[in-house]
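Exercise 3.2. Students should predict the tertiary structure of the chain below and write it as structure tokens, then compare their answer with the key that follows.

Predict this chain's 3D structure.
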Amino acid sequence: MRLKIGSLLSMMFLTMAIMTGCTGAAAKTAQEVFDAYNNGDAKKARQIYSEEIQGNEAFDEKLNQAIESIIDNYNEESIDIGSAQEQISHYVDVFGESTCSMDGYENLKVIQSSKAAYEKAKKSDEKEEYAKAYTLYERVSEKDSNYEDAQTRLGELSEILAEQAKQGKADTEQYMQKHESTIKSMQRYYTSPKTSDKSTGNSSSE
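Answer key:
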């Protein structure tokens, strides 16, 4: 009985060692692919990928990180939409289409649309077209780096719109009727006591 248990344990540890070794080797090979790619040798990168690690999780993880970095750069406006799309397209040209690349294109599309809405919202805001600005700020995605600013302005505009409706401004009254429940919930949120910032011990309100 002890002999059987000992044999089973030995097999288990051997399997674990092999799996760990394979994972480490795959990660190393994935790094070699990206090293070649980043050094401008797309042909070598494609060859290693095709012959050794196509469909490997370690490679997919690195590719996903690379594409997320491109999206972050676009989101923070370090690069424009054309450059972001081109960089992702180059990965597709070298390694083929993947879930990572398709998700990357979709996220770029969402953020691009969101940023366009945010810019239009600011212009309407400057013209004091507050009802229109409110609608546009609502379209700003959580993925957009402008999201927090948009949410803050929505809270401020809810107060402005409520006041204008009281004063009988026709277009604002129509807007308030259409979006009454949303405006009221925003007002409750922004007029409620702010929670403390646990990281600093200070109130989150200025």
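Discussion points: The beta strands are 196-197, 202-203. Residues 2-38 form the longest helix (37 residues).
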